[in-house]
Amino acid sequence: MKLCFDIGNTDIFGGVFCGGQRAAEFRRSSRARPSADELGVFLLQFLESQGLAAQAVEDAAIASVVPDCGAEVADACRRYLNVDPLILKAGVRTGLKIRTRNPNEVGADRIANAIAAVAVFPNSPLIVIDMGTATTFCAITASKDYLGGVIAAGMNLSMQALAERTAKLPYVELVKPQECLGRTTMESIQSGLYYGHLGMMRTVIEELQREIFAGERPKVIGTGGNARFFKDTGIFDAYKQDLVLTGLLKALELNRKS
């Protein structure tokens, strides 16, 4: 049994894998910066609630964009589960060639996404769109060169900026609007968030296709919490909610073979 942790700016998303298949998952806020003891007790309770024995945990992997939270999760794994987790970072085997100007600054979650994407569509040019706190685009060639990408404010972050920086615009629920034209302030904000993001994604895909893929249409994979709103738009060739966790599991396989 293996545990994988995707630690983002909003949530800790965790998955339990048995025999290569996901057996359970959880989300816990990362904003409160829980301690190793809090996380350790939480993990023990979660595993027990799922009928899974903590003693059966063989290994773990972590992708974190929140360094202090990642360190606490790693400490919790060592102290409460007796496993030393793999931390996805520079120097870890990924099966990719990182071709950015500064490979050390590429987020671990983006690398995990790329590892999993290459497994989904081998030998194909790829764009991975991860829609979380930020909306990120990663470009990968058919020969597994990770070239870089694009980072934009996510839908929730954009909504938060509107609500906090204006006098009369409210927070709204993120939804897929029935039509583009909003007939109330709330509908107008929801439409702007949705169609603004849809237009941005289409434009970025087109520009990356022109700039680096010589006009060839790459395979596009959508992941992250907000990607679900765009599953039926035809923009994604595949939608994988847990792409980071899958990539972490594959990183474990690459690095623990010996």
> What's the CATH class of the largest domain, please?
Alpha Beta
Radius of gyration: 19 Å
Low-confidence runs of at least 5 consecutive residues = none
**Overall pLDDT metric:** 95
Discrete helix count = 6
Instruction: Give the tally of β-strands.
Output: 11
Which homologous superfamily in CATH is the superfamily of the largest domain? Answer: ATPase, nucleotide binding domain
Give helix % range.
25-40%
- CATH T-level fold name of the largest domain: Nucleotidyltransferase, domain 5
Write up what this structure looks like.
With about 260 residues, this protein is α/β, with parallel strands linked by helices. It contains six helices and eleven strands. It has helices spanning about 35-50, 65-80, 110-120, 155-165, 185-210, 245-255; strands at about 1-5, 10-20, 20-30, 60-65, 85, 95-100, 125-130, 135-140, 145-155, 220-225, 240. The strands form two sheets. The chain has a six-stranded mixed sheet, sandwiched between helices. It has a five-stranded mixed sheet with strand order 3-2-1-4-5, with helices on both faces. Helix 1 (about 35-50) crosses helix 2. It is globular, with a radius of gyration of 19 Å. The mean pLDDT is about 95.
Write the layout of secondary structure elements.
Layout: E1 2-7, E2 11-18, E3 21-29, H1 36-49, E4 59-64, H2 67-81, E5 86-87, E6 97-98, H3 108-120, E7 126-131, E8 134-140, E9 145-153, H4 155-165, H5 185-212, E10 219-223, E11 238-239, H6 243-255
Parallel strand pairs: 1-4, 4-5, 6-9, 7-10, 10-11
Antiparallel strand pairs: 1-2, 2-3, 7-8, 8-9
